Amino acid sequence: MKTILGLLFTVLVLASAGARADFYIGAGAYGTSVDEDGFEDSDVAPAVFLGWRPIELVGVELGYYDFGKFESQGSSLDANAVTLAGLLSMELGPVGVYAKAGVSNTSYKFSEVGNNFKDDSTDPFGGVGLTVDLIDKLYLYGEYLHFANDDAAVDVYGLGLRYSF
Questions:
Q1: Which of 44, 78, 92, 116 is buried most deeply by CB count within 10 Å?
Q2: Domain boundaries defined on the chain
Q3: What is the DSSP letter of 159?
Q4: Where does 21-164 sit in CATH, by number?
């Protein structure tokens, strides 16, 4: 019964997509910071994403976030993430707010003198954001996201542009 209800809900959502299906692409610059076991540094790095909002309040997004390279006391950490997230959003005139949550496939490369290792993991992530409608389908956005696994936690603050088509 749950499977049937889930399929029915999916069909209803997809059927309503014809009324206002909204695809979008975006890119931005993100200030990233890591603070883990005395390893503390920050960097600025790019991010890109592609999303789909079948209805105004709900969306799904695929993204790539380069966290940059962090250095501390002779060690370095290079990290990035590929994400799949759900969005809940509300638009109040030209301004919109949203919450984003999903999973990230995060890759960490850690190096120190004589010791290198790589860790790939799939972990939850989430955050919040704000959009401002600049012109018809072009938006300025700002967001905060938090990525964490057993090895490190990365906070990112981004500013960029999103275009709907």
A1: 78
A2: 21-164
A3: E
A4: 2.40.160.20
